[in-house]
Amino acid sequence: MAASNHLWRSDIHDFTTADGPPRDIELENNAVQAHTGPPSRLDTVQPAVPPADHGSAAWIFLAGCFIAEALVWGLPFSYGVFQQYYSTHEPFASQPRNIAAVGTITTGFMYLLQPLVALASQRWQQIRRPIAVVGHSLLLIGLISASFANRISELIITQGIIYGVGGALLYTILLIYLDQWFIARKGLAYGVLWAGTGLGGAAVPLIFNWSLERYGFRTSLRMWAVVVFIFLTPLVILIKPRLPLPEKGEIRPLNLRFLRQKLFWVLQLGNIIEGLGYFVPSIYLLTFGSTHLHLRPIPATLVISVLNLSSVAGTILIGYLIDHLAPSSVILISSLGAALSIFLLWGFAISQPVIYIFAIAYGIFAGGYSATWTGYVSEIQRNAREADAGIVIAILGAGRGLGSVSSGLISEALLGYGGWKHLRGVYGTEYGVLIIFTGVTAVVGGLGFLMRFRFRGVGGESVASTMEIRMAHEETR
Q1: Orientation angle between helical segments 163-181 and 99-112, nearest 10 degrees
Q2: CA distances in angstroms from 400 to 365, 396, 474, listed in the order given
Q3: pLDDT digits (tens, 9 = 90+) for 103-150
Q4: In whole angstroms, how far apart are CA 338 and each of 277, 442, 444?
């Protein structure tokens, strides 16, 4: 590696080994020193810091995050099943207006609140665990109170706002802690985390499809509250950061200089536009399968489950690639793969096998898009080493949340516009314009690839230099 590529101080070297992840003893000590300050006269022994990227503690924490992700996001990603039930059963069938808003508000709050939670928890790090506890409690309160609702407005407050706020509080703390536990394998770790959403989105709709028809929404929500309590409570108690907290009362200054980078805003623009279309298939495939392919309820629901299950493989695969390839190359793979699946498969899905193939392809390529964020965090840290990955990812998540909130209104208007009857396949139906819109947003989501040619170093970086940036950022903690 050329000397000009080194980002390290001269006294830090040999940060990689042939048989393991990047490690540096001096780096770990510096990280501890940065967190805890100089040793006091009464205690000069620094606490041992668990290793990042390997060891039982890191993998156990990642497994807990995966379970929490599946449980927290499983309900909002299953709202299509609830929406169908609420629209056809009392007490909500007679008040159909704003039924769709419940799900949109839930995901909107869970995405849009992430930056606020991340900023607050970075400035006052001692409140991270209380934030997680409050978030867990709000999840349970939202579920139980929603089971007593009799009006859509009550569902919006309980299943929408209260649950959404609780999910944002708990989920954001997991994002911040995970950034500490994985450095060299950060892309893979976040990919595994986000794979939990896919697993929850695959299994939970089937569970609720059965329980809603058999027991109704009140019992179903209460049963889910019990599941969340049983599985999430131990996780909330046991989750912990890898690095020690600062001295009590110490306030960590926030550094948001990365927001001045053109690179960040170009990436965020592509991310927001991608979010406008990302949720469209998960919203409409159930209805599309029932009305156009005449699928029965279970096979139609399975389309959504297959899509979400495929996103499990997608997030892990893209997360792995982002650790080993240039970020711009990986985002190109994700965006073009998603766009081609939309245009060529959904656009001509005139039979049941084709719609399942589309669900698999779209789940892999589009479902893994968020896993590219960790690669671009490294690129942002190239010029702003102090930029915190948790805050950057939270802001990117909020960008996708903007797309999520807007996509409902836009897609509904496009669906009403119709299609072009002279065209073949699904393009000749009322879904034609909607499919074009979804495909175009997937293409624009790959905007980050163009930065390879516009900004020096973006996309042309080596994997080694990306690792240098990650490890150098660890030193600044």
Answers
A1: 30
A2: 16, 6, 27
A3: 878 988 999 999 999 999 888 888 899 999 999 999 999 999 999 999
A4: 11, 6, 11
Read off the pLDDT of residues 40-53 as tens digits, 9 standing for 90 and up. Answer: 444 444 557 888 88
Q: Are 183 and 320 in contact (CB under 8 A)?
A: no
Q: Of the given ranges (44-53, 171-180, 468-477), which has the lowest mean pLDDT?
A: 468-477
CA–CA dist 279, 342 (Å, integer): 13
DSSP collapsed to 3 states, 379-444: HHHHHCCCCCHHHHHHHHHHHHHHHHHHHHHHHHHHHHHCCCCCCCHHHHCCCHHHHHHHHHHHHH
Weakest mean pLDDT among 35-44, 47-56, 245-254:
35-44
Residues 6+ apart with CB under 8 A from 25: none
**Rounded mean pLDDT of 25-29?**
43
Residue 365: is it exposed, middle or buried by C-beta count within 10 angstroms (0-12/13-18/19+)? buried
What percentage of residues in the chain have a pLDDT greater than 70? 82
Interval 329-355 mean pLDDT: 94
Q: Dihedrals φ, ψ of 372, to 5°?
A: -75, -15
Q: How far is CA 416 from CA 103, 215, 410, 411, in A?
A: 21, 34, 10, 9
**Tokens in use for 241?**
């950061």
Cβ pair 46, 29 in contact under 8 A? yes
